[in-house]
Design goal:
By secondary structure, the protein is α/β, with parallel strands linked by helices. It is 45% helix and 15% strand. The longest helix has 17 residues, at 75-91.
Length: 96
């Protein structure tokens, strides 16, 4: 999480894939920071986690628009999301 925060300013990715259970800067804090700053709102965000939806809700939930994929992750679903993400960015004339 902390490494992602440090890299965001330099790299400005189109897609951020994160877990929620990380130390010392967990995925909830990372998502809160990314979603609260206007310059990061265009980043598509995917959360991979072993936490249940109830556990996530108890910890404040996920911001709107964040895709949640429970572990173990369905590689078919992940591949479909990534393919769609690339196609959308190509149609918009942006690098994927």
């Amino acid at each position: 999480g902390l490494d992602a925060v440090l890299q965001l300013e330099r790299i400005r990715p189109q897609l951020l894939i994160t877990d929620l259970n990380m130390e010392p800067f967990d995925g909830f804090r990372l998502l809160s920071m990314v979603c609260s700053r206007a310059e990061y709102r265009s980043i598509s965000t995917v959360v991979l986690s072993g936490l249940s939806q109830d556990d996530i809700d108890r910890r404040g939930g996920l911001p709107p628009g964040v895709l949640f994929l429970p572990k173990p992750v369905s590689m078919e679903r992940m591949r479909g999301f990534l393919d769609a993400h690339v196609q959308i960015h190509r149609q918009q004339g942006q690098p994927a």
